Amino acid sequence: MNQSDHTYSSIHNDVALKIASSLTVPDLSSLSCCSRVWREIWGSDCVWEPLFKQRWPLLYEEIVKDPNFKGWKGFYIKQHKEMRDQTESIIKFVGQCSKSESLQVNDHLKAVQCLKSMRFGFEDVQMLLFKPKLNVLLNLVGLHYCLNILRLPASDVKEALESNKISDRQVNVKWWKLGRWFYGFRMRDEFHSRCLSLVDLTTLKDDADVLGVLHRGAIHEVLQVQISIVNSTSSLWLNQSSQ
């Protein structure tokens, strides 16, 4: 055993596991290169099971029902690759639907529901959708999913937007509402428009109706919904019939 192995092996196993359990996946990978002892700890189920549970809590509840399940590290890596591949399909889908830099609300909701069916976790959204290089419409899909599906605290989502340097990115949401009836006459259809940043959606209470409109889609009194990139040179209005 070399000097490095001897030094690391002098740490009590419980202490070493506690240290490893407090690290992120990239840091764990770096730690595994330090010595044979750390490499063995890196492959331990004791380290990877909590990481899996934290990232995919819903999926974890299904898997943990099998008391004989082992190999959390390998399963974590496999799941990560599957999430990455499926995210690519969502990115492609949204890209095809928003060639004119606008997106139908039903396509937006399809992307959000896709994340739900995949059991996307908050960490997945941060790693795979909260990227500055991605279309802001994809950032919005991730934001909507975090707030309306995962029901995460707005402060946590705001922090993630800021750390990924996308909080100031802007979208324009427009929608038409069917005119109200007044003494037997229908008033003119109501037009609403909101131009706001992603972080606004997590902080401004008076703009909470925007996420509500996106979450409901074009139903009942809402006739049209358009989501577009601010400063878009072209816009696409797409009617959606009420459900």
Structure, explained:
It is elongated and about 80 Å long. The longest helix is centred in the middle third of the chain and has 26 residues, at 72-97. Helix 7 packs antiparallel against helix 8 (105-117) and helix 8 crosses helix 10 (136-149). It has a 4-stranded antiparallel β-sheet with strand order 1-6-2-5. Strands 3-4 form a two-stranded antiparallel sheet. Helices cover 54% and strands 13% of the residues. The protein has helices at residues 3-9, 13-21, 25-31, 36-42, 45-55, 57-63, 72-97, 105-117, 122-128, 136-149, 154-163, 200-203, 208-216; strands spanning 102-104, 170-177, 181-182, 185-186, 190-197, 222-229. With 243 residues, it is an alpha+beta fold. The chain has 2 domains: 3-74, no CATH class; 75-229, no CATH class. This is F-box domain-containing protein. It comes from Hibiscus sabdariffa (roselle). Pfam families: F-box. Residues 11-49 form the F-box domain. InterPro entries: F-box-like_dom_sf (IPR036047), F-box_dom (IPR001810), FBXO4 (IPR039588).
Entry summary:
The chain is α+β, with helices and mostly antiparallel strands.
